[in-house]
Design a protein that fits this description.
The structure holds two protein chains of two kinds. Chain A is an all-beta fold. In chain B, strand 9 and strand 10 form a beta hairpin. Chain B has no helices and eleven strands. Chain B starts with a strand and ends with a strand. The chains are: A mainly beta, B mainly beta. At the A-B interface, strand 5, strand 9 and strand 10 of A face strand 5, strand 9 and strand 10 of B.
Amino acid sequence: SAVISQKPSRDICQRGTSLTIQCQVDSQVTMMFWYRQQPGQSLTLIATANQGSEATYESGFVIDKFPISRPNLTFSTLTVSNMSPEDSSIYLCSVTGTGGVTGELFFGEGSRLTVL
Amino acid sequence: EDQVTQSPEALRLQEGESSSLNCSYTVSGLRGLFWYRQDPGKGPEFLFTLYSAGEEKEKERLKATLTKKESFLHITAPKPEDSATYLCAVPGYSSASKIIFGSGTRLSIRP
């Protein structure tokens, strides 16, 4: 298993500002994933963050809007830039399990952002 | 395009009233189907992986089954603590590390 801590747990932000979300894992992991969960919706993968290389972004998500850092094997940040009300969502960090079980992801508790 | 559809969107049951949640999928070569539970204000929690049609997995009052086109999550004699959103997911075709989630079924169990 993996224990994932995210900060902040929630925040209220003004339009046009940027916010950085931190994700700390209690063990070293190769890949970390950032998901978005819009109100009443399911999870959508934003990007995959590998240590030592640039993040890989999914269709519809770009680095200028969601820059990601991965300085080491236990930590990552996601920045939501130039926010608009449409960015109001829960942002979740996740990692794969180490037990080799296909599809087993561990998630942080999420960062709930409200953009006014 | 890989797709996962869950039904119903919401389900309210009386404690002890058994039922099933449905997950239908269209993927190019299934490499596993996953079930997660998500409580309000929390990240999803992994429950099961099913690999092939006919496979079943059980955990307490939950049993997941898989056919070639859909999966069911059967809930037997549920308790209020089973109330949660249940998510179904599959690995993406382009990359197995990309997990595609369905929109979920919000399950509410009344005491």
